[in-house]
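step=predict obj=Pyridine nucleotide-disulfide oxidoreductase n=569
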Amino acid sequence: MSKHVVVIGAVALGPKAACRFKRLEPGSRVTLIDQAPRISYGGCGIPYFVSGEVNSVTDLQSTPYHIVRDAAFFKTNKDVDVLTNTRATKVNRAEKTVEIVDVLTGKTDTLHYDKLVLAMGSKANLPPFEGINLSGISAATNLDEAEMLRNAVAAGQVNSAVIVGAGFIGLEMAVAFADMWGIETTVVELQDQVLPNFLSKSMATMAQHDLEEKGVTVLLGESVQRFEGEDGAVARVVTNKRTIEADLVVLAAGVSPNTGLAKEAGIECDPRGAIIVDEYMRTNDPDIYSGGDCVTIPNLVTGKRGYYPLGSMANRQGRVIGTNLAGGKDTFPGAVGGWVVKLFDQSACGAGLTIENAVKEGFDAISVHVEQFDRAHFFPEKALMSLELVVDKPTRRVLGIQGMSELGDALTARINAVVPLLKAHSTIEEVSNLEVVYSPPFASAMDIVNALGNVTENVLEGRNHMMTPAEFAKAWGNCDTDEMCFIDTRLSGNAQPLVEKYPGRWHNIPNEEIRARINEVPADKPIVVICNTGLRSYEAMLLLNELGRGDVKSAAGGMVAQKKIGSAI
């Protein structure tokens, strides 16, 4: 039977749900409404438009066939009615109506629905800072703001920019300003690391170093107090520690679900305001569906509900909703929270829990760091990839994985391979034995993912005693010769510069010479062995244990990891 579906919100989830439903029920009617003049665009591409990598803002709104997804497109190609510049002001569940207003004319109207989809997305967190209404301050969340930012930098009006928040959008915007436009860029983050809750502190140090090497100033543990301006435009950002000159400010302090309309209608929400939906993406009203940035869904690692404002999530949920509007029974059981962000030389990617979050969730967890080439070591084009696995010790269950690499495609391939294992509550043995395709231009015969599982197993079995990259850097910086012995197990040609730089502290005994030179290794103090990536030092640790040296630890990731975190060695 023909029905009328009303969809509130037309950026990601809304259009996907509307078009999927119309394909399944072409005889039914769909009305898609949005308060903005432009709809159905890739909001995640805004930093790349600002940087200039995406040429035109219409590229973010176009199909792969270069047709702009406007109201006419949806009517002609999808048979979906679209009302732009139209705000929904009230949902009456008893009468099954939506009250709307034209934001340009003020004209009001009422739409009757059989099924309703709430796809209002999220809104930027805008703390009530003094001076927040000065021009030149933007949350960079829509196409109008994107054009303002791009026009300002392209016109040469911006010499310095401040990013408030070191999450995905904040770091992408920092790269856009500093890399593409050469703007003096500062990131201010309230937490003590970049990408908080997404990268471990150790991995976050690598991301921070990548930013700082390219001239971005990263200020951690600082809070913005106010904005100061001149002639109505922002000129300075005042934190609790300093004053920063700024011609432009991007507020990237996270987002919250835009669900005021839903709460007023009696739709059940969690304390943060996210709509609670079941596996079919239905709300507590069986005729109302929701998804994307509006909803909370189960975290498949912890079993608790989480919030995942990601464009990819919204599109997949939109398809589920469209199917179910047509009488289907598609489900969306939850997510592990996979993500990726491009920085300068490095990209960062992850899924599941960091070690810090795993401990907070009550797991008896450890993390293991590995550095290895992403391709066969003898293949000319390759990059050293950093991966960190988080595992629950008692059950050996994999809880999370994060990584950093120069070649982002290779990195995402590894993270994506582990995502199904996180959903299935798999153990490290399934990581060690994970079947991955192999050819020297694409991977090693023992892929880094398999190696990560193997190293983690060795740690759990007590065969490998590791220091994280951050622990090694701290130990090196804090102790003297009498407290700990540091041995570089690389060949002398690689180790000699550090032996000369730190005489009496940095020792070099290559693996091949350990048996013959065992008397040079003290038996009465802790030993730390390091090599290039951690493989040789692991073997050195085993040999030293065999030769009677019991307190030996291997530096995870070796010198490669130390370089990536910006260690002072």
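step=describe
The longest strand covers residues 365-373.
step=end
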